[in-house]
Structure prediction request, 445 residues.
Amino acid sequence: MIKKRIIPCLDVKDGTVVKGIQFKGLREIGDPVELAKRYNALGADELVFLDISATETGHNLMIDVIRKTAQQLFIPMTIGGGIKSTDDISRLLNAGADKVSLNSSALANPQLIKEASDKFGSQCICIAVDAKWEADKEEWYCYTHGGKKRTDIKTLDWVQQVEALGAGELLVTSMDYDGMKQGFDHRLLNKIQALVSIPVIASGGGGNAQHFADLFKETDVSAGLAASIFHDEEVSIAEVKQCCTENGVDMRNV
Amino acid sequence: MIAIVDYGLGNIANLTNAIRFLGYETILTHDEEELRKADVIVLPGVGHFKDAMDRIDAIGLRELLTDLEKTKPFIGICLGMQLLFQHSEEGDVDGLGFLPGEVKYIVSDLPVPHLGWNNLHSSYPGLDKDVYFIHSYKVVTDENVVATADYGQEIVAIVQKDNVIGIQFHPEKSGDYGLEILNQALQGGWK
Prediction:
C-alpha cells in the first residue's frame, strides 16, 4: 500500500534557505542544493521549496536552485511561492519541478487552478492553504502572502472549490499550530480530509517524531511536512520514520 | 543514444537528468532522422491523454512511432506508458495501440490521484521496493504485466511485450532504486 510521506520544507529567499517561526523573524539556514541532497540521503520522501523572495531577481535565483537540485536529486520536488501564471508554472516545471504549489494567486484568481490543471495535469498542481481559526466566527479563514494577509474566504469552502477546479493535492498549514511544536492540527486536517478526496499534506506544529505518528494515526492525511525541526536537527527523518513504523504506520524503506 | 520524444509536453527535464546521470547520452527530439538513429526511444509524458495524442498527431508522429515500435527498444513512462495502449477514458480517445488494454480513471475510496511511494509486487526478482507514483488514470490489461502495486485495487506498474516497455510510476523520481529500474529498462527490461 501507499506509504505516508515525510517532507522537509525549505523556505528559500534569494537563493538561500531560511525559516521563520510563525512566519516572522527570518533567519538564514543554508545552501538549498546541499540541504536537498542531505535530505535525500537521510530518507526524505519528497521536498518542498517555498520561494519567499520578494523580487523578480529572487525568483530567478529559484529557477537556478531548482535546475541544480534536479540534476543531482531524484525524488519529487514541489515548488511554491510567487507563482502567478501558467507561464511561471511552465518555467518551474521545465527547470525540474515536479509539482507547483499555489496560494495567493489561486485565491486571487481561482480560474488559474483550472487553467493550470488543464494544461499541465492535476497531478502537478498543489494548492497551499494557510488557515487560521477565528473562535468568534467558529471558522477557519484563508491567509495569503506568507500568512500576512487575511482573506474573507473560509478554508473549508475553499478546499472544496480548489478540488472541483482540478487541484491534485493540498498543502494545509495551520497558522495556529505553526512553529508551536505541539503537534499537528488534527481537528482542521480531519475536517478538510473529510471534505475532499485529493491527498493532503499536513503542515504546522510537528515538533517531535511522535507528533508525526499521532498525525497519521488520528487523521487520514497523506504526508507530514516540517522545516525548522529538521533543519536544526531537533529530530531526524529516520527517527520520525522509525517512530511511525513502531506505531503501525507504513513508511517507505530506503 | 537515448532519444526522448519531444512532442511539446513539459516536465521532461528530470527524465533527461536521470538518464544522463546513469551515464547515457540523450537527445530530446521529434526529428525523424534523429529518432531512427537512436538506440532506444523513450516516450515521456505528464498531463492529459487527449492533449498528448493531439500533439503527437499535430506533428505527425503517430506513424513514425508505430514504425519505431516495431524495430527498437521503446519505453513509455507515466502518461507515455498509457499512450502505448488502445484507448483511454481520459478524453475518450484512442492511444497508439501497441499493447492491448485500456486506460481508465482510478475509482477509489482512497485519495485520487494515486500519489506517493508504493511498493511493487512482481514475480520478477528485485521488483519489490517503493517507487513514486502520481496518476489519476490506470492501465487495465491482463497481458504483459511485469509488476503491479496495490492501492485497494491492482495498479499495473510495469508492462513489457518484447521490446516495448511501459512504466506507470516515475523511475526518475524514485531515488536510487528508481534509477536502477530505469537502467534495467534501458538495458532491455525484464524479458
User: Anything to note?
Assistant: Chain A has one domain: 5-246. DSSP finds ten helices and twelve strands in chain A. The radius of gyration of chain A is 17 Å. Chain A has a mean pLDDT of 92.
